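Review this fold:
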Amino acid sequence: MRVGLFFGSFNPIHVGHLILANVMAQHTDLDAVWLVVSPHNPLKAATTLLPAAERLQMARLAIEYNDHLRVSNVEFSLPQPSYTVDTLAYLESLYPSYQFALLLGEDNLPTLPKWKNHQVILERYPLYVYPRPGTPRSPLHDHPAVRLLPTPLLDISATYIRQCVREGKSIRYLVPDAVEEYIRRHGFWQV
């Protein structure tokens, strides 16, 4: 089984995430895409993050009716902060017959050399890269592990969604209805 791993804070998960994950699951050689909810990205500040369990629940609500997508909390049981290379090794130990690939935005290519053991990732795993507007070309664009795939260009961010919620503006169509209702019910990001 070929599984694409889409790592993210998903703070909150939004339609941009879901469209990309679904396109990767339906229009590539992947059998499934797992959305891996990261408790804490070591390259990002944790100050605006909701608790991991809340972000996990919203991700589960978002993909509830899609058989090609799955939500994973694998990093919840690993030492923090989470490093992709460690998560990959752990997943391989749990699923030795699976082949894993990473799904990531083109804007991550320039910073990939900052990742822990990034060379191991490039040697062992294909990178399914979706375009991001305004991303300058990097040397990794030509790496054999990198597959730049045609996907919809979506400029939706969780930062924008959180700002809308704080300002009392609608987030309808930016997140699935169940996620919008969950955010409102729990009062996330409301001042």
About this structure: The chain has a mean pLDDT of 94. The chain is about 30% helix and 15% strand.
